[in-house]
Amino acid sequence: MFNKKKNQNLEGKSAEGGSASGGEEKSEFAKIYEESIKKIDEGQVVKGKIIMITQKDVIVDIGYKSEGRISLEEFLDASTLKIGDEIEVYLESKEDESGTVVVSKRKADKTQGWDSIIARFNEGDTIQGKIVKSVKGGFMVDIGTEAFLPASQSAIRGAADAAGLIGKVSDFKILKINKQRKNIVVSRKDILLKEKEATKLLFLEELKKGEIRQGVVKNITDFGAFISIGPIDGLLHITDMSWGRINHPSEMVAVGDKIDIMILEIDKQSLKVSLGLKQTTPSPWKDAEAKYTVGSKVKGKVVNIVPYGAFVELEKGIEGLVHVSELSWTKRINHPSEVLAIGDVVEVVVLSIDAENEKISLGVKQTEQNPWLEAAAKYPIGTKVSGKVRNFTDFGAFIELDEGIEGLVHLSDISWTKKINHPSEVLKKAQKVDVVILDVDQQARKISLGLKQMTQDPWSEMSKKYAPGTPVEGQVTKITGFGIFVELEPELEGLIHISELSIEPSTKLEEKFKVGDKVKAKVIKVDDEQRKIALTTKDA
User: Fold this and answer.
1) pLDDT for 297-350, tens place per residue?
2) 477 SS3 class
3) What are the structural domain ranges in the chain?
4) Mind listing the pLDDT tens digit for each residue in 104-115?
5) Separation of alpha carbons 457 and 25, rounded Å
6) How do strand 232-237 and strand 272-276 relate by DSSP bridges?
7) Angle between the 20-36 and 4-14 helix axes, to the nearest 10 degrees?
8) Alpha carbons 243 and 220: distance in angstroms, whole number
9) Measured torsion, CA atoms of residues 119, 123, 129, 130, in degrees rounded to the nearest 10
10) Which of 48, 73, 221, 310 has its CA 20 to 30 A from that of 238?
11) Contact 174/122 with Cβ under 8 angstroms?
12) In the CATH hierarchy, which top-level class contains the domain 207-280?
């Protein structure tokens, strides 16, 4: 250590015993020396110049008798210091026991720091600082004055380890400045996030769509897996894991696996990347049109059933749809599950293929002969056949003629003379009946049947038998709002309109007549075209 006071004493001793001129020289030298020393007071901030840097300290000349010594720990970044630099220090004591000037860089910064920080920085600005100690709820940071760093703001996730942070110099974001209380709150987390985003963006600039990179499986969800590639995590969706069908991503990858994946999409705005695993291998659809020609028969496994059909896997990555209408030539299938189940191995025929859009249409019924191709020859018009009643509709009854071949008896073809409102009035399910083939439409796969045609049309005789004016007697079969129906003989009814009934206008038909009542009437009209007989009770 250099000590200007000691130098002065040595010079004084060498002058003792000298001539008068020597004494004059001494006083002149002392006078010049004293004038060269600054007049400074303890507690003052002064400027000094770095004259030496050791492994532990910085020696500063402040223009006083002795130099000051400052620990390197008081500097935010000691590596930037060099001899000749001017710094501001706080004078604690002009001399200690060893005659050294006691100065502090940290106290100088604190003394002038607050005003300087307030003058130069605002909330939201970035400032450099050094984390100096751990306190309750966080850390104290030296930014030229003390600032508080909450534990939650010390790292990107959670709180950083205190041992790894103390003494660390880094940038901080000023979150809040409270001028009244003279305290500042800073965040390291915001800076780290910003740096992380900058690193991600730089990395994304290097990525290219379609290139293959190696990644590590970081996390697995029901919809896919997150793959770590450098500083970013990309999503590998379940649909991009395999050309074939999988139920869960865990069937393909496990956490920690190193895999080669293809970059599918890059979104620089949201810093997101879409990845593909199956795309690293050739698509099975590449040669599908040559392998699965239209009309060819192939075998596959039923992998999914939906209301409109069943998906059949021909090989890993290639599935075709069997529409519900392509399951049977003859049966009415309402849902594919009536004839197929997941896991079934079935033979199908390729109906069409669109490799570009990855679609194949398949058929099950095409593996068998179409029975409708022989229907016209097997069921000539006018032929009498036997069948079983399978089902009813409001407009008729379906009769099964052969395995899978059904025909329809329309309501109008059930009876020559009786008005039928529903086929169940005459027929019962599973009942065996004889019918006549009226028409065969192979294209539409329809056969029209007739029940009444099994007997001779009696109407020509009826119209003669029930000429206008003929008195009749019958039984009430139905009561409606417009009149009553009367059965004249089996399968033959006549209508007595309400205007032709001998009753008061206010009388309700239900009160006057009951089904089964005997009624005497007279024929007033016979309609050969509509096959209707009109009756009246007036003058009967």
Assistant:
1) 999 999 999 999 999 999 988 999 999 999 988 777 889 999 999 999 999 999
2) strand
3) 4-107, 121-193, 207-280, 284-367, 371-454, 460-536
4) 777 777 766 777
5) 163
6) parallel
7) 170
8) 19
9) 130
10) 310
11) yes
12) mainly beta
